[in-house]
Design goal:
Number of domains: 1
Strand content: over 45%
Structural class: alpha+beta
Largest sheet: 7 strands, antiparallel
CATH class: Mainly Beta
CATH topology: Thrombin, subunit H
Order of helices and strands: HHEEEEHEEE
Strand order of the largest sheet: 2-1-5-6-7-4-3
Radius of gyration: 15 Å
Shape: globular
Number of helices: 3
Number of strands: 7
């Protein structure tokens, strides 16, 4: 058996198969924000943030944050992963009209089965 089968399995696995939601805990705030992860963009995963949310004032494209990701399997513990904000885009016409899509890119190895 070659390493090719492992690589193919890793390529097919998506983040939304492993994780259900992401939690933002900003340094200067007392609030913790938890969002469902969406896989609706060809650029990767995102979370939906309502217009007017204070979180939008705290995020900038390029920021690298330590986010807590809750697994789809509730028997497995959550993971803290370094994540970069890839884009913050308002959806003016689509399914989520009036909501901001905040693109997330996990910088750490995603294949950390525990």
């Amino acid at each position: 058996m070659t390493g090719d089968s492992t690589e193919r399995r890793s390529e097919r696995r998506s983040i939304t198969d492993q994780y259900y939601s992401a939690e933002f805990s900003m340094k200067k705030g007392v609030f913790v924000y938890q969002f469902k992860i969406w896989d609706i963009s060809p650029k990767g995963i995102c979370v939906l943030v309502k217009e007017g949310s204070d979180l939008l004032n705290q995020l900038k494209v390029g920021d690298i944050l330590d986010l807590k990701y809750y697994r789809s399997d509730p028997l497995k513990s959550a993971d803290h992963l370094k994540t970069q904000i890839g884009y913050i885009t308002k959806d003016d016409t689509g399914r989520f009209k009036g909501v901001y899509l905040v693109g997330l890119s996990i910088l750490e190895n995603q294949d950390s089965e525990r």
